[in-house]
Amino acid sequence: MKNNKPKHNIKKLDATILRTATNYLLPLLLLFSLFVLLRGHYLSGGGFVGGLIASIAFVLHSFAYTTRRTLRLFQVPPRTLIPIGLTLSFISGFLPVLLGQPFMTGVWFADKVAVIGSVGTALFFDIGVYLVVIGVVLTILLTISESD
Amino acid sequence: MLTLIFLTFVLGFGILLLKKPVQTKFVALISLLPFSIFLYLLSFLRSVKDGVNSVLYRSEWIPSLGINLDSKIDGLSLLFGLLISGIGTLVYLYATSYLRGHPLLHRFLSYLTIFMGAMLGVVTSDNLITLFIFWELTSISSFFLIGFNNEQEESRASALWALAITGLGGFFLLSFGVIVGAITSTYTISDLLTQSDVLKDSPFYLLIIVFLFLAAFTKSAQFPFHFWLPGAMKAPTPVSAYLHSATMVKAGVYLLARFTPILGGTMEWSTILLVVGGITMTYGAFHSVFRKDMKGILAYSTISALGLLVFLLGIGTEIALYAMAVFVLAHALYKAAFFLITGIVDHALHTRDITKLRGLKKYFPLLTVAAVIAALSSAGIPLTFGFIGKELIYESGLHYIDYNLSLVLVGALFFTNVFLTGSGFLIGIKPFFGTPIKDYCISHKPDWRLIAPPVVLGFFTLLLGILPVIAYKEIILATFSAMNGAVVEMPLAIWHGVNTSLLLSGATIVLGTAVYFGFKCWNSSMNVVERFEGIAPKNIIAFIVEKFRQLAFRYTWVFHNGYLRSYLAVIIVFFIGLVGYKLFADVPLSVNTVGLSEFRTYELVVFLITVVAVVFAINTASRLTAIAATGVVGYCICLIFVFYGAPDLGMTQFAIDTLTTVLFLLVMFKLPAFLKLGNSKIQFRDAIIAISFGILISIITLQALVSPADKDISRYYAENVYTLAKGKNVVNVILVDFRGFDTMIEGIVLSIAALGVFSMLKYKDDEE
């Protein structure tokens, strides 16, 4: 990128309250999104909603601080979450094929795990969806807010 | 077999990683890949030799839809498979020298390998759907091969034409498969053999064969779809030799031959094939002698040969099927040799214009031998394999059931063969004999990798020509039986005594030679042919395409004019028209208010808030207010979802609404100032649209309550959610398990959208 001038013409707003709130809200919302993701198989929730909630958390952060600060929270650009998520979904769909069953058959571990319940390919599929949604939403929103 | 094809694909992609190693001299080793496939396929000869047996491999893919990766090897598959891998071996060897030092050689070899895998898939598939998939893969990989010189405009255009025409054919092949599958409830080709009568008696028989023919004719460059083939000659010569003589263009012929025992033998079948094949073969043969470019001549003579094969399938008698099997082999041997020779000449002298080439014998002694053998085989001189083919071709014409018609058939065959003989001589004889026009400066001395392939092909032409019984016993009988459905012995021999077909062969050679010598005379009158270019199918189709594009532009301009508001108006008005019409025309409207529940206080409150927010959104003078107001409307809808027991929906809607509002805010700063664009007239119009849309949706909702609905699916989900998917939340289990495939595809769609936004905005940034 050639122009180094700050892309944000948001003046130095007095965003202290928002920032302080965000500092607490971001981890809380992320935890909540994970909660929604994991409970999805039994109660309302799921990867899609969970992903949206997590995205909202980051969008809130970008409002309180700046897009650049939000991007700095990630080690890699959020768009890399997209292929990771898609691959995870695909692998969890493909796993049964290796076990001799049709594509996308649910395969489950025999033992239940505390809190989460039964762990199976569907969960990993959902995690894949979760990552894709975060990746997509943040890529779109942050790209738009970054561009002049 | 299947493993082999997949291994080929894996290797094909693997070669892409070998950018450096392919530039070394060890690259010739890559031809061991097709060669080992060739040897492997040879091992099947014994199993299918007697023409009765075939080797089947079954493996399930999507058994619930009847789509399986079955392969079947019988004589017909094996003949084509051997041609693909055998000529493939030679082409690989040749290409490594022809494109030596080309920076993208690894890509070329990769495309070639993928193409070979797809082609093997086409000829061994025993399932209509997998056949279609491999068929499309050949179209796609050949697109990359034809457009390999992608910095040339013409090359790209030719590749696109080839893809468009063969892709159109692929569409018809799929339609064919679906209809056949619907009628017989199987996609397995070997099962269709027993259902031949069902298909022939079906009212859709004509439609089925027309779809099949369109698929085959586009791929095999039959009139009027032939024009992509001369264009495809822009490809590097090894590609032309491989795709356009021996393999891809014969896929259409293979398809017809494959379905001959299932669908063939009817009046419609033979009439269409005779007419189209007949036109193609005479048209192609006649055109071939009016070209100067060696590849142009070869393109048209190939079109003609393909027409001839289709014609023979149209005759459809036993002897014609024999002739077809022999001619496939004979043509592949001599035509591939012609292409390879052309490539060498072009490579060494940088010209393919036959009027500028003479006396090359001195420079390429061994190549001249190969060229002469190929020319003699194409002319059908005894002791070459082409002779055997030509005899059988005339025999099949002479022994047609209808005597009067047989005269016409023989006439057409004779005409074609005369011109094919002439054009064969133009390629194989003319450039090599006589005195050199000038002292050619040979820039690239061809090495053994270039010379060997045509010589090997020439060797086989002679071997099978002298001892046709080898070809007959090993493969031709089996090929014939696969097409005929029953074994009929008809041994090939060099000498049948003096009979009509021998006399015709003799006359062909004499007249063909006359055509060859006449070349000079009408060389000057070539513009006669050019004058008819205006009505050539290529130009007609190009004209239609151009008009279609203009239409598309105009259409797009009307509906896709860049104003979001008019998109919305168009979509909604269209919806109102379509659904409204259907609703009032077909459904007895009865709104049942009895079953509706009472308004509860908090619902009333939410409703009022919604109305107020809507009024605000419409009347405000500030964009921010409008956005906030629509956000309020969205949240109210979420609440309604929650009230009526759809918490999942409510939750998702809530998150989506939040993000949409944020998105709005983000773009808000970039929009021009908020103006009241509409005058009262426009506002009035919009109000009518909006109100009628709202009324329509309300009616549909109320109507849905009283309409009987099929609850089987939802009941199935509800009952099986725990037993099958170990979940309790039906909505989410549907998303991740029952219909997880949809979710995955939707994930891909979302990703593409994100990539689109990202690349558009970032690209713009970088340009600034």
UniProtKB/TrEMBL annotation, chain A:
One GO cellular component, as annotated: plasma membrane
UniProt-annotated location(s): Cell membrane
Taxonomy, superkingdom: Bacteria
Broad class of the protein's primary localization: membrane
Keyword set, alphabetical order: Cell membrane, Membrane, Transmembrane, Transmembrane helix
Chain ranges of the Na+/H+ antiporter MnhB subunit-related protein domain: 17-139
Record keyword Secreted present: no
Its membrane topology: Multi-pass membrane protein
Coiled coil: none
Keyword set includes Iron-sulfur: no
Transmembrane segments: 21-42, 48-68, 80-99, 119-144
Alphabetized PANTHER family for the sequence: NA(+)/H(+) ANTIPORTER SUBUNIT B (PTHR33932), NA(+)_H(+) ANTIPORTER SUBUNIT B (PTHR33932:SF4)
NCBIfam families attached to this UniProt entry: PRK12509.1 (NF009163)
Protein name, entry field: Cation:proton antiporter
Source species of the chain: Myroides marinus
Automatic annotation (TrEMBL), chain B:
Chief subcellular location: membrane
Domain MrpA C-terminal/MbhD, first and last residues per copy: 609-672
Cellular localization per UniProt: Cell membrane; Membrane
Pfam families found in the cross-reference section: MbhD, MbhE, Proton_antipo_M, Proton_antipo_N
The keyword Phosphoprotein is assigned to this record: no
GO terms assigned for molecular function: antiporter activity
Lineage: superkingdom: Bacteria
Any one biological process term the GO annotation gives: monoatomic ion transport
Classification via PANTHER family: NA(+)/H(+) ANTIPORTER SUBUNIT (PTHR43373), NA(+)_H(+) ANTIPORTER SUBUNIT A (PTHR43373:SF1)
Record's protein name: Cation:proton antiporter
Organism whose genome encodes this protein: Myroides marinus
Lineage per the UniProt record: Bacteria, Pseudomonadati, Bacteroidota, Flavobacteriia, Flavobacteriales
